[in-house]
C-alpha cells in the first residue's frame, strides 16, 4: 500500500530539503519571461518550471492562475501535475477549496480523489467550520493524500476572523490547529497540515500538531528564511517554507531558476536539524 502523505512528505523533505516551490504564472511574470498571457504562454511557463524544479521535494501550483484561462488552463494544470509527479516531485495543489455537504464532496473528488486534477495534497479553507471539510478529509485519507488547512494567514483582513477568541478562550486559528492535531494523533507523520504565514508575529501553538506546516510568504513577501526556526513550537522537520516569486523572477532560464531554488533550499535546510 502507498504510504500516507505525511510519511511521503517527511521522506521527501529529509532527502531533498524542506522547501516548497510555487508555480504562479501571474500575467506580470509571463510578460517578464517574454510569454503571452494565453494558454500557450501558460503551458510554456509551466513546462519550464517542471524542468527546473524536478529534484525538489514539493511544488505548489497556484490553481487560480490556471483557472483564469478556463478549460485550456485546467488542461495545462492537469499536464503540469502529471509531469511533476512523473519526475518524483510531490505536488501540492493550492486550490483553497471550502464548502459544505455535497459541494464539498465534489471538490474532494476533484482535488483528492481520482480526478486528473488530484495532487498529492491540496489546500483548504475551514472558515465554514472545520467540520465542513470532512468530505475532503475522508477522501484524502482514502487516497493517501494530504490536506493543508488555512489557519493563520498573513493578509491583514484575516486577523479579524483568525485571531478572534472562541468561547473557550482559544483563538479561532488555534482551534483549527488543534482540530488538525486531533486527526493526526497516533498516525505517525500526520497528513493533515496547516498553513501559517511566514510574516506573522503572532502564530498559533503548533507543538502538538503532529503534521506539516506550510509557511508561505518567504522571500518577496517579506518572510526571512533564517527566522523560521521554532515557529509556533513546531517539531523539527515539519516546517515547509513556500516561495514563489523570489525564485520565479530568475526565469525563464531553467538553470537560473533551478539555482535560485537551490539557494533558498540551502537557506532553510537547517529546519530539518532543529
From TrEMBL:
Primary enzyme class: lyase
SUPFAM superfamilies to which the protein is assigned, alphabetical: Ribulose-phoshate binding barrel
GO MF annotations, alphabetized: orotidine-5'-phosphate decarboxylase activity
Domain annotation Orotidine 5'-phosphate decarboxylase: ranges: 18-260
Active site positions, chain numbering: 96
Swiss-Prot/TrEMBL catalytic activity: orotidine 5'-phosphate + H(+) = UMP + CO2
EC assignment: 4.1.1.23
Pathway given in the UniProt record: Pyrimidine metabolism; UMP biosynthesis via de novo pathway; UMP from orotate: step 2/2
Keyword set, alphabetical order: Decarboxylase, Lyase, Pyrimidine biosynthesis
Gene3D superfamilies in UniProt: Aldolase class I
InterPro entries: Aldolase_TIM (IPR013785), OMPdecase_AS (IPR018089), OMPdecase_type-2 (IPR011995), OMPdeCOase_dom (IPR001754), RibuloseP-bd_barrel (IPR011060)
HAMAP family: OMPdecase_type2
Family membership: Belongs to the OMP decarboxylase family. Type 2 subfamily.
The protein's name: Orotidine 5'-phosphate decarboxylase
Gene expressing this chain: pyrF
Amino acid at each position: 500500500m502507498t504510504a500516507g502523505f505525511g510519511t511521503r512528505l517527511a521522506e521527501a523533505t529529509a532527502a531533498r530539503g524542506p522547501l516548497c516551490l510555487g508555480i504562479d504564472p501571474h500575467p506580470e511574470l509571463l510578460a517578464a519571461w517574454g510569454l503571452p498571457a494565453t494558454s500557450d504562454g501558460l503551458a510554456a511557463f509551466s513546462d519550464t518550471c517542471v524542468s527546473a524544479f524536478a529534484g525538489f521535494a514539493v511544488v505548489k501550483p497556484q490553481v487560480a492562475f490556471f483557472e483564469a484561462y478556463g478549460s485550456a488552463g485546467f488542461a495545462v494544470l492537469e499536464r503540469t501535475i502529471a509531469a511533476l509527479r512523473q519526475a518524483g516531485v510531490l505536488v501540492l495543489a493550492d486550490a483553497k477549496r471550502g464548502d459544505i455537504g455535497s459541494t464539498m464532496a465534489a471538490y474532494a473528488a476533484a482535488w483528492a480523489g481520482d480526478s486528473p486534477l488530484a495532487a498529492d495534497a491540496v489546500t483548504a479553507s475551514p472558515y465554514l467550520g472545520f467540520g465542513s471539510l470532512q468530505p475532503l478529509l475522508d477522501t484524502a485519507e482514502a487516497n493517501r493524500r494530504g490536506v493543508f488547512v488555512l489557519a493563520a494567514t498573513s493578509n491583514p483582513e484575516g486577523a479579524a476572523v483568525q485571531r478572534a477568541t472562541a468561547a473557550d478562550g482559544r483563538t479561532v486559528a488555534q482551534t483549527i490547529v488543534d482540530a488538525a492535531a486531533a486527526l493526526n494523533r497516533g498516525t505517525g507523520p500526520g497528513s493533515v497540515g496547516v498553513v501559517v504565514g511566514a510574516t506573522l508575529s503572532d502564530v498559533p501553538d503548533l507543538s502538538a500538531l503532529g503534521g506539516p506546516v506550510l509557511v508561505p510568504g518567504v522571500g518577496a513577501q517579506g518572510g526571512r528564511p533564517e527566522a523560521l526556526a521554532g515557529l509556533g513550537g513546531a517539531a523539527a522537520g515539519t516546517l515547509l517554507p513556500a516561495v514563489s516569486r523570489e525564485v520565479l523572477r530568475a526565469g525563464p532560464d531553467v538553470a537560473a531558476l533551478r539555482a535560485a531554488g537551490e539557494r533558498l533550499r540551502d537557506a532553510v535546510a537547517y529546519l530539518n536539524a532543529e
